Amino acid sequence: MRTIRYFSSLNEKLRIQPKESDTRMSDLSTTYRDLDAHDYLDTHVQDEHHALMMNHLLRDVFGVCENERVLEVGAGSGRYTELLLERGYQVIATEPDPVMYNRLIERLPDCSALTPQCAGVEELVEQYSDVSPLCGFHVLHHLDEKSLDHLRSAIEGIAAANESFRGWFFLEPNPLNPMYPVQIALTSGMS
What we know:
Distance between the termini: 39 Å
């Protein structure tokens, strides 16, 4: 296994009502409750750099072909899920926050290549041991230390249960990039 570190009607059936006592919320160190203030999460990813990196990792490094199953951890409102689907992958998009999960299914209704799951990292091994790669986009900084340990264990468990598992990667914002604070300052809802 290679490891690379880069840091409608169906909608109503899938919709989840958030509960105060929902244990999956422990996976998150931050949640977006004021969705209007975070409307940038609803826009299509325009950054071709992310698309190129995703293509390189999935196709060139991991050898993932169209129609193979990809597990996306922390899908949020589905911004990067959209990119995966556009490239022909079968996507299992997990999101522990019921509010963000509902945004995901509203964004991508009736998509046969998408399996949305309101699930936290501790639930990954039991359900998704047959995926090719596991990936995440701008998610690690939302996880606390306990959740990161769960994620590491989940990846190890999936790799042990699936000999065709090809690895994992996470594309994360780089806070050392001088443009990152500029983006935060200029993007409504990020500051």
